[in-house]
Please model this.
Amino acid sequence: MTDIPTDTGSPAERPAPKGGSLLVTDARTKRRNRAETRFKSYGIAALAVGVAFLVALLWAILSNGLTAFTQTYVQLDVPLLEEKLDKDGDRDPAKIAKVSTFGYKPLIEAALVDLVAREGLDTDIEDKALTKILSDAAAADIRDRVLATPDLIGQTVSFEVLASSRVDGYLKGRVSRESLARDKNLDAAHLDLVDALREAGAIEKRFNWAFITGADASDSRPEQAGIGVAMLGSLFMMLVVLILSLPIGVAASIYLEEFAPQNRLTDLIEVNISNLAAVPSIVFGILGLAVFIQFMHLPQSAPLVGGLVLTLMTLPTIIISTRAALKSVPPSIRNAALGVGASKMQAVTHHVLPLAMPGILTGTILGLAQALGETAPLLLIGMVGYIATNYPDGVAEGFLSPNSAMPAQIYEWAKRADPAFYERAWGGIIVLLVFLLAMNLIAVLLRRRFERRW
Amino acid sequence: MTPSWIALIVLAIAAAGFVLARMRALGAARREARRLHSLPNYYGWTAAIYAAGPALLLLAIWLVAQPVATRGLVWPVLESSAAEGAVPSLMMADVQRLAAGLEDAIDTGRLTREAAQALPPEELRDTMAARGVALGSDVTLATRDAALRWLRLSGIGDLGRAIAVIGLAIAGAVWGVSRAKPDFRARNAVERAMRGVLIGAALIAILTTLGIVLALIFNTIEFFRLYPAAEFFFGTTWSPSFGGGSELGILPLLWGTLYISIIALLVAVPIGLFAAIYLAEYAHRNVRAWAKPMLEMLAGIPTIVYGLFALLTVGPLLVEAFGRGGFLGLGWMQGGTAVMTAGLVMGIMLIPFVSSLSDDIINAVPQALRDGSLGLGATRSETIRQVVLPAALPGIVGAVLLAASRAIGETMIVVLGAGAAARLSMNPFDAMTTVTAKIVSQLTGDADFSSPEALVAFALGMTLFVITLALNVVALWIVRRYREQYE
Model:
């Protein structure tokens, strides 16, 4: 310890050692230490920025999309006058069906005027313009209800009808009085009335089941649009992907991992698989368009075609993860099976495959999740631009008749001009992400539950 | 007989073959399974496979081949009357629709074959329209004749199909049953067939690549027949118009693609790389346990979400900052969709790619290198900069190339966030467009696949495929070589 200088001697008596004191950090060390701190803080900053982006993304999704799950409804007591809806009074469904939605409009208008009068609100809006606070879909809704139960005719029935998208937007803070200045659909006077009616309890926001289960609506009725039909389209597509990609992927992986000899063909297949995994998804869309629609004349916009394209796209992913799962089964299992007289095929199908199954399923679920969120190939095979307003009639129809899919529906809404559809798009994203989250969760749980360490 | 009925009959024959062959083998062995070479079920499976395999294969081939062959045989009828500039595929589609309508009418007994032959072509269109069959153009004499010929030929084809497929199935089943003797090595036969199925599944990867390449090449050649290749590759204007006289130069699109990709990489590479370094070298196990999955969540989010984020959140935000009257007062940005918007959001999407690949690669650098450097007195950051990163550099370059290929092929973000105008501009706040965005816009909707404006999408796809493939091959080669170095 003799090298340690003490502070007792004066610097003049004892010349400082050449390298300086070990207790006093010299300038160079300080600089190096500062560089060290700086470098580390770059790392922390990068990580923080990455996480901040994630948080910003999630915040944007939630803050914009959660409002899609509530919807404004107006409580209306509509007098279903017999002389308007069923002139002969014999409740013949064919005759009642002849009354179009135009026949219902005056009834709704009367009900609204009546509501305003009953609540004792005075407004200088003309009676005709009053219905602008209601959705165009209101008449169709009431008509459907009447067609379903013709006995309602002649009574005054209480309906909950959709408010128009601008009223809905006003209650959600999307539409303000200033933004209405140039809007010919609604005036500030309407908003005053809405406020008053809300006070009176005739207008209220409720949870929007129709958004989750409903069908898409035309451009002018964003308040009616739902993602239910597109969800069904996605479901049929995922069924195709599952039915095709799981067996094909497993078969291909078994061959490559267990049987393939080391030769040119095997190399070619391996190179192909790793390259296909990195081919842009839009190229698969081109393939689907050229092969399935142009060449094989399969129906456009059908979930079957979408499923086929997504199958080709997810196969490489599934093959790669399945091979990893097969590889993780130790050779001793195979050797033991072969030792008691099983053929190689029996060793694989009876022992290796069941042991690798959890890993294979995990990989397949993750592949499906990737396929579920994929949009670009669907644009090319015509799953966009098609307005999915009807549920398919049956299972075969579900595969073959035109439909949309969740991501395609979101894209469709994002392209429309009315900002009310943006809210639907964000809401659709929340639904999509809930599905993805659930699938990933299942995959993680599967792995946790069945993963085996050999 | 419809194909599904034929398939069902074939399966029934196969099931019968299974039962018979199994019984026969067991009978020959006097009901003692151990006298057989294989387990009894294998004998059954042999017969079932012999019956169903070739027959179903033939059915599939027939289904693809018959329309092509019929089309070839019917075309001569139409060819003579085809007007100048008529599209053969559309004419054939009309013929097929008419044939389907006539067949329906004959099946339901409203029309006899002779009556259809005698029907004047002018009336056919109205008759069909009344039955819900819409025809593109007026029915000419040639169309009617072609439709009738189509009907006759496909009737013959369908009959031939049923006979050939079912005959093959019966023959296969008989052969399989006749081979079911105790000394027949049934298991080996079944396993050979299974192996064939496995190889077939593995070959689908090659078939997919082949399908992509053929689909692109044929349509690209078709495009270059209609539009000069030199103008496509070196043209600086992109203004398609379906009316004709469009200029389809790829350069503005390539520039937009590159510009957006460069901005994306400028965002993703530093953030991803530093995050990877921190996670691999500094972070405590607990931090790593939650930070890594969080970053990887960014990779699991579908691109449509990023697209919407660009269009509705990032774009308006950037306009507020850089737009006219924005708080920076610069006025550089005209609208929300711009190169910057798309590039920034794409950068966010690419962060997890760069970070998790780099993380793996940094972790693969042997610990001995670090220990040696630290032992010599280097600080950790000096070790990282001067030892770990140089050792990991090839792998990191590979990761960046993979990220670049992702960026070039990304579609939804640019479709929603980058704008639609094709221009050669240096301003990153201008709206520009990319190769992928234009593929989408040229091919969506009911495009007529014979116009250069639609076919150009295939040439664009070809360019995209070649660029990304080259990047991937190089990147994978680098990564693989690097891995070998330390193994």
In short: Chain B touches chain A through 92 residues (CB under 8 Å). The two ends of chain B are 61 Å apart (CA to CA).
